[in-house]
Amino acid sequence: MSAPVVLVPGLGLGPESYARTVEHLVSSYHVVTLPGYGEPAGSREDLHPRALAVALAGKIRERAVLVGHSASCQIVVETAVRYPELVHALVLVAPAGDARMSSWVDRAVRWLGSAVPDSPKLIRAVTPQYARTTLPSIARAGEASRHHDLAEVISQVRAPVLIVRGRHDLLSTAEWVERLAELSHGEARTLETGAHVPIVTNGPEVAALIERAAALPETS
After folding, report:
1. In this structure, are residues 33 and 94 in contact, taking their beta carbons and an 8 Å threshold?
2. Which end of the chain is more exposed for a tag (fewer CB within 10 A), N or C?
3. CA 202 to CA 184: how far, in whole Å?
4. Which residue range forms the structural domain that includes residue 144?
5. How does pLDDT run across 126-158, given as a tens digit for each residue?
6. How far does the chain reach from its first CA to its final CA, in angstroms?
7. 97 and 11 Cβ atoms separated by less than 8 Å
8. Where is 35: in which H helix or E strand?
9. Percentage of residues in the chain with pLDDT exceeding 90?
C-alpha cells in the first residue's frame, strides 16, 4: 500500500499549480497552502521556512510523502527535520534555496530566463494565483526564503529524498540538485524538457516520481 501524498505549492502559487501533476496520481493526496504559498499572510506572521514548517506539520494528518516546489522545498525539508515521524519520503521539485544566489537580481534574472520557454503555458495560469496570495505576501515570503540555506539543513533529513528539475531551469541548476542529493544521500533527476515549473509542464513525469516515492518501504 502506498503512502499518502501532501503537496505544498511554490512561492505565490496555489493548489491549481499541481493540477497537471495530481491528475496522474494514484495515491491519495491533498494540497496544503500556507501564508505566502497560496494564502495571503498576516502582517505579523513569521514566513521563514522554519516557522512555516510548524504550520505545515499541523496540517498533516498521517505519515506522508511531502512534495515541495521551488521555495516550498525549504519548508518541507524543515518539516522532515523537525517532524520525522510525519515524513515517509520527500520529493523536491525544482528546489530553490541556494544561498550562493544571494541577490534578488541574480534570482530574478535566472527565474525570468527559466520562465521564457514555458511562458505561454504559465502566464495565464499563475496570474490569478499570485493575485490571491498577494504581492506583499509573496515578497515577504521570498525574502524570508532567501535567508534560508537549504544545503545546510537537508543533510539532517533521514527520510528518502528525490530531487527533480527541468533541463532548462536556470534557478534550480543541475549542479545544485546534485549537491542536494549528495548531502541528503538522495537521488537527483533532470527531466529532458521543462524549466522551473515541471509540476505544470511535466505533470505525468513528476507524478510518476511521486508514486515511486510513495511506494517505498516504510523506514524507521
Report:
1. no
2. C
3. 24
4. 5-214
5. 889 999 999 999 999 999 998 899 999 999 999
6. 17
7. no
8. strand 34-35
9. 80
